[in-house]
Amino acid sequence: MPILKNKKSTRSLRHRPQAFFKSHKKVAEALLQSLEDNDTGAFLEILDAYLQVNRTKVAQETLLSRTTVQKALSKTGNPTIKTIAKIVHQAVA
Question: What pLDDT, in 10s, does the model give residues 67-93?
Answer without folding.
Answer: 888 888 787 888 888 988 998 888 887
